[in-house]
Write a structure and sequence with these properties.
Strand content: 25-35%
Number of strands: 32
CATH architecture of one domain: Alpha-Beta Barrel
Number of helices: 10
Helix content: 10-25%
CATH superfamily of one domain: Glycosidases
Amino acid sequence: MAVSFVLHAVAGDVPVFNGDFEQSSPATPPPGWTMWGDQKWKIASNYTRDTDRPHGGQASFRIVHPKGTQGYIVTNPDRALQSKPGMAYTFSFFARGGHDGAGRFSLTAYQSLKTYLDAPSPGSWTVPLTKDWKKYSFTIHEGLDFFAGEASYILLTFKATSDTDTAQTMWVDDITIDESPNPAGTVQLIDPSTLKKKPAEAMLAVGDKLDITIDAERILKPVNPLVGGMSFHRLDGHSGYPFDKKGKYVMPEETAGAIRELRLPMTRLYGVGDGPWSVEESIDRAAELCQKTGIPTAHVILELEIESASKSLPPDIWARAVKRSVEKNYGFRHWEVGNEVYAPALWGSKAGMAYATPDEYAKHVAAVSKAVRDVQPDARIGLSISDHSLVWGSYLLRIAAGSYDFVCPHFYAGVDLNKPLETIVIETNKTMMERIETLKALLAAYNPNRAVTILDSEWALYGACPGDKEPEVNERNRNIISILHRAVRMIGYVQNNPLEGASGWELLGNPGYPGYGILYPAQPNKRSINYMFYRLWNSQIGSSVLEIKGSAPASTASLATLSADKKKVSVVLVNASADKAVSATLKLNAGAATAVMLSQPSLDSLAYDASTNEPKPLPTTVRDNTVTLELPAKAVVFVSVDLAR
C-alpha cells in the first residue's frame, strides 16, 4: 500500500490530499476532489469512493463516464500543486478500467486561482487501461514543459476515456507527486514573458459614436494581401471535389468561376501525396486546380502527408513531388511538412501516430528539407506547430531551427459561442493577436540569423456551445458571427502585420456535413455569407494602409486603405454589438461614397440562407467632404470613397 499523504509525505514528495482515498467519507466526490468543466456534466454519483478491489488499503476512486458525456474530475483548487522554478514533477498512480480502453490523465493549470486565469496545460497523456491494476508515471520539467510563472497552480485531472462516445469506468488509487530539481542538461526554453514584443497599433479613443479622420496622404505601410486566402481540403476532399477518387476533375465550372471571383491570393492543400495516384500526378492535379481557379501558385502551400498525421512520407517522395513541379515549371515553392502533427500525441488518435515526439518530427523535417532543397534551392519549408504546447511549440522551434522557413500554427479561436458577441469578436481577437506576437518573438529568438515567418495554412472561429459534439456542426462558426470574427482578425492582420499570410478554413463543403465550407460544389449555385465576405474583402481592400484617428465604441473595428492609383479609399467597418446600431462619421477628402453591408437578423441565421447572406446597399451621405452612415448591429460594412479632386 502507498503511504497516505493526508497526514505526511516522505522526503521529495508533495502531499496529495486523500491521494490514497483512505479517508472515509460519504461525500461525492471524495474529499480533496471536485467536478470540473460544464455544469451539465457535474453528476456527483459518477465520482465515488469504492471499497471493491482497491489497489491498496481499503478504497480507491471510481470515475464513471456514461456514453456521450463530457464530465471529468480534478484535485480541489485549494489543494493545487504550486509549481516552482527549476523543478521536475513526477505524477504516479495506479489505474484500471471496466474494459480495455484509453483513459486520460492531464494537468489543468492556472496562473491565478483568484480569477481562474488559465495557463497552458503542462501535459496530457493517454492512460491505456486494462481490467488489472497498473502503475502509470508521467514527468514534467519546469522551463521545458511549462513555466512556473505562468502555470503557477496545477490540478491533477482524470477522464475515464479519451473518447466521449465510449462508456467506461476508471478506478484510480495511490496517487503520488515527486518533486526534484531538473536533471543536469535539461533543455531550458525561452520564457516568452522575457521577450520584447511589438505593441499593438494605437487604438482609437472610446466614444459613443464612430467619429474618425482618415488622412489619405498619411500612408502607414503596404497592405498585406495574403491575409485573404482560403484553404482547400484534399484534392480528393470530403466534399467529393475537386477530383474524384479516380483522379477525374469533377468540380462544376460554376464553382470554379465562383472561386475565381474570390481573387484568392493564396491557398493550401493537404494530403497531396496521399491520394490514390502517384505523387507526380498529384502535383499535376494541384497545378490544374490552380489554373482553373485563378490562384497564383507562388503562394500555394502544398502539404503532402495524410492529414491525420498517422503516417509520414519518406524524403524521396517529397523530392519527387518537388522535382515534378520544377520540371513542369508549375511555380510551387511552399512545402508544409505534415498537418497538425502534434494532434495524435496530444489528444490521441485511432488512426495511428507518425510522430510520437517533437524530436522524431524535427528529424523528419530536417531530412525532408534537405531532400527538397537539393531539388529546389529556393524552396520554403513549413513547420507544423502548436503554440498551446511548449514541447510541440517552443521546444520544436528550437530543435528544428535551420530546417524551416515558415510555421503553420493554425490559429483557430476556441470560444464558448454563448458568450457575448463582443467577447467572441473583439476580445478573443485581442488575445489572438497577443499570441501571434508572442510566437513572432519566439521565431526571432530561435532563428537569429534568418527570417522565419508565420504563414498560417488554416484558421477560423472554432467555437462551441455546451453539448456540441464538435465545432463543425455549430452554425455560428460559419454565419454572421464567423464573419464578424474573421473581419476583426483580418483587420488586425493588416494593421499590425504580424504574419506573412493566412489562409482560412475552408473553401469546399458538403451539404451532408457542411463544416466550414463556403461553397458547395454539389449545389454550385449556393453561396455562404463567408463567401460573400471574402469576395468583398479581396476586391475592395486597397494597396496601402492609411492612418485613422478619432474615437469609436469598443464594439467596433475599422480599417482604411488607399487604392494603387490613389484615387479611392476603401474603409472596412465592423460593429460587433448584438443589438445597437452605431452612427459613423468618416472625415476625409470625399467626393462620392457607396457602402454595402453583410449582416443577418439572428445570431443563429443560416450561412447559406440567400435571403439574409447577400450584401445589401447601405445609405451614405457625403457633405463637406465627410461621409456619414449608420452601422447596423452585428454588421460588416465596406465603404468605397472616391476622393475629391
